Amino acid sequence: MVVYGIPNCNTVKKSLDWLKAHQIDFEFHDFKKKGITAEKLNDWCNAFGWETVLNRKGLTWKKLTKEAQTNIDTQEKAIAYLIENTSAIKRPVIEKDGQAILISFDEDRYAQTLG
Question: Which of 24, 40, 71, 89 is the most buried (most CB within 10 A)?
Fold first, then answer.
């Protein structure tokens, strides 16, 4: 299992703490340091929808002009933006056996999905 995120994000911290508390092994991929591929983002967008993968609540998104925000209106444009601005990816994303299974943190969904 791989957890994608950035270590200083509170939501990522909650997720990692939950996984550790439930003794679930994982590898952490810091996409601030290691980057992320368009292919990986495309997989996540196909799994969750590009509008879910794009974090519109974060500071990175809010710094954009309204015009720039409005212009990001397709999966292709969202992926191009997210490659350049990894902080705007909703996090964490959890993959199991190469498949994206969870995004963000919700204790009930984690318990249901990861048991």
Answer: 89
The domain segmentation of the chain, as residue ranges, is: 2-114
Check if the beta carbon of residue 28 is closer than 8 Å to that of residue 5. yes
Using CA atoms, how far apart are residues 46 and 41, in angstroms rounded to an integer?
9
pLDDT along the chain (115 residues), means of 10: 96 97 97 94 98 95 96 98 96 96 97 93
Backbone phi, psi, residue 49, to 5°? 95, 135
Indicate the length of the chain as a whole number. Answer: 115
Q: Are 102 and 94 in contact (CB under 8 A)?
A: yes
CATH of domain 2-114: 3.40.30.10
Identify the pLDDT of residue 18: 97
Answer for the pair 45, 54: CB distance below 8 angstroms, yes or no. no
Determine the Cα–Cα distance for residues 13 and 21; give it in Å rounded to an integer: 12
User: Looking at the annotation, which residues are catalytic?
Assistant: 9
N- to C-terminal Cα distance for the chain?
A: 14
Contact 100, 47 (CB under 8 A): yes
